[in-house]
């Protein structure tokens, strides 16, 4: 139980966490990953190396401490954490591991003088309350997945029915359940969790579903990352007929129902969730302004698919921006995306719903440009192909 004294102590430690939150969580991850091999497969080592994951968790803990008296203010953050946790199958039994490592890290980083027994006890109680909140919210998503038509709980075996090369860097994998049953119809923009064992090491990754729901199979489209463990393995070793373990589709970067025109602005492999969103928006009779940025034609995936859709749906306007065009490439603009492009290609920005996704520098730029041309912030949505980070500054 969280007492008024606990609350007061937690609130008093906010400035402390603000100045030292990252050091704390970095230390926390070090303890957890070295001493608890059972949770290691859930965490992506590359995200630890970049510092983004520790920053994301620090932000989560800080927001919580700040809002301990009005947890409803955490609404969107809790939803985002829940989706991420569910996609990687964070389970109730994992919470005590994180809790004990977090408290130990608080003690070791702050020192016994600051992190007194009373401080540790208050944070223990606060963590317990937050853990209960997340465990409850996550269980309702797991239960929803299990009860839905074609749904399931935990991992389900899928066979690679087809591999399709989409560009020099991106290959699609068409996945159908080995049990032959139907699959949960995902909302456009959702992603699955993939569990693999590579060289004896278990790994989990998220991949957006790059085709509209059909109730029968899924398609993921994977960019081969230089030095990437899972993407390298999928590209090099996974053949048609192989079996992969999937966790059910989830996510909150989904097409919101409305009659407004939609702007979809993507770069590189960030195109994947935009494809089912585009199909859904067009099927709903909405105008779609699709802007895609790529280095050049060789790495521009799904151009033919989008062109075919444009033939069927005159309401689809598409624009391609190449930063390093090759001879013969056909683009609507060269270089990086600019304000001028949005002004030219997005009529009535104030009336749009905008969705964007791509590498972080691209996302920072697009977020700023959308604000400049007058797309309302509350109708601008984005997602990260990694831990959530700030796009400002
Ligand atoms: C919601 C969501 C949806 C996604 N959808 C897609 C999608 O549709 N298509 C897609 O291709 N990807 C998608 N991703 C990204 C995907 O989950 C993987 O992150 C991506 O495939 C890279 O994984 P990997 O194992 O190949 O690379 P990793 O092994 O994770 O490495 C990534 C990069 O970090 C470097 N690195 C690795 N370890 C270290 C280290 N210890 N120190 C320093 N650098 C290191 C690697 O060289 C590489 O450049 C999505 C991610 C999320 C969160
Ligand atoms: C109260 C407890 C917890 C809080 C406040 C918390 C908070 C967060 C936050 C803020 C993120 C980032 C979300 C994003 O990037 O969108 C995250 C991601 C994650 N969390 Fe938690 N979490 C908690 C417990 C746990 C537990 C118990 C586990 C399992 C051991 C866990 C595993 C993960 C994983 C695997 C990710 C994704 C990491 C990545 O992208 O590399 N979390 N969590």
Please describe what this structure looks like.
It comes from Methyloversatilis universalis (strain ATCC BAA-1314 / DSM 25237 / JCM 13912 / CCUG 52030 / FAM5). The chain has 393 residues and is an alpha/beta fold. The chain folds into three domains: 4-147, Globin-like, CATH 1.10.490; 156-250, Translation factors (Elongation Factor Tu (Ef-tu), domain 3), CATH 2.40.30; 262-382, Rossmann fold. It has twelve helices and twelve strands. Strand 7, helix 9 (274-283) and strand 8 (288-294) form a beta-alpha-beta unit. Protoporphyrin IX containing FE (HEM) binds at residues 39, 42-44, 47, 53, 56-57, 60-61, 80-81, 84-85, 88, 90, 94-95, 97-98, 127, 130-131, 134, 387-388. The site of protoporphyrin IX containing FE (HEM) has 26 residues, from helix 4, helix 5, helix 6 and helix 7.
Number of domains in the coordinates?
3
Bound molecules: flavin-adenine dinucleotide, protoporphyrin IX containing FE
Q: Do you know the CATH architecture of the largest domain? A: Orthogonal Bundle
Q: In total, how many beta strands?
A: 12
Look at the structure and give the mean pLDDT. Answer: 92
Question: Span between N and C termini?
Answer: 39 Å
What does the largest sheet look like?
A: 6 strands, antiparallel
CATH superfamily of the largest domain: Globins
H and E order: HHHHHHHEEEEEHEEHEHEEHEHE
Labels describing this entry:
Elongation Factor Tu (Ef-tu), domain 3, Globin-like, alpha/beta, six-stranded parallel sheet, single chain, 3 domains, 12 helices, binds flavin-adenine dinucleotide, 42% helix
């Amino acid at each position: 139980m969280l007492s008024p004294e606990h609350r007061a102590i937690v609130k008093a430690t906010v400035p402390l966490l603000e100045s030292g939150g990252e050091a704390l969580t970095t230390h926390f991850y070090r303890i957890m990953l070295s001493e608890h091999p059972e949770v290691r497969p859930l965490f992506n080592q590359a995200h630890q190396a970049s510092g983004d994951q520790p920053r994301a968790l620090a932000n989560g803990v800080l927001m919580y401490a700040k809002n301990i008296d009005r947890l409803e203010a955490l609404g969107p953050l809790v939803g985002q954490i829940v989706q991420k946790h569910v996609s990687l199958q964070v389970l109730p039994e994992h919470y005590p591991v994180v809790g004990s490592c977090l408290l130990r890290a608080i003690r070791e980083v702050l020192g016994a003088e600051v992190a007194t027994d009373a401080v540790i006890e208050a944070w223990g109680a606060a963590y317990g309350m937050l853990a209960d909140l997340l465990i409850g919210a996550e269980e309702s998503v797991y239960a929803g997945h299990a009860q839905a038509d074609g749904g399931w709980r935990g991992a389900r075996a899928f066979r690679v029915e087809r591999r399709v090369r989409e560009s020099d860097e991106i290959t699609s994998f068409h996945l159908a359940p080995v049990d032959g049953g139907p699959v949960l119809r995902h909302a456009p923009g959702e992603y699955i969790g993939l569990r693999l064992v590579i060289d004896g090491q278990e790994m989990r990754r998220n991949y957006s579903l790059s085709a509209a729901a059909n109730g029968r199979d899924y398609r993921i489209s994977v960019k081969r990352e230089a030095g990437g463990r899972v993407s390298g393995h999928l590209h090099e070793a996974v053949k048609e007929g192989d079996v992969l373990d999937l966790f059910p589709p989830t996510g909150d970067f989904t097409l919101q129902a409305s009659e407004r025109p939609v702007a979809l602005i993507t770069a590189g492999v960030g195109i994947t969730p935009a494809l089912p969103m585009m199909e859904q928006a067009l099927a709903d009779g909405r105008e779609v302004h699709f802007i895609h940025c790529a280095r050049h034609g060789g790495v521009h995936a799904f151009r033919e698919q989008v062109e075919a859709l444009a033939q069927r749906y005159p309401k689809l306007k598409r624009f391609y921006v190449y930063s390093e065009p090759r001879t013969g490439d056909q683009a609507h603009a060269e270089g990086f995306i600019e304000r001028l492009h949005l002004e030219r290609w997005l009529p009535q920005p104030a009336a749009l719903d905008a969705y964007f996704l791509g590498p972080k520098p691209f996302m920072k730029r697009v977020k700023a440009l959308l604000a400049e041309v007058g797309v309302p912030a509350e109708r601008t949505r984005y997602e990260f192909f990694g831990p959530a980070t700030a796009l400002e500054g």
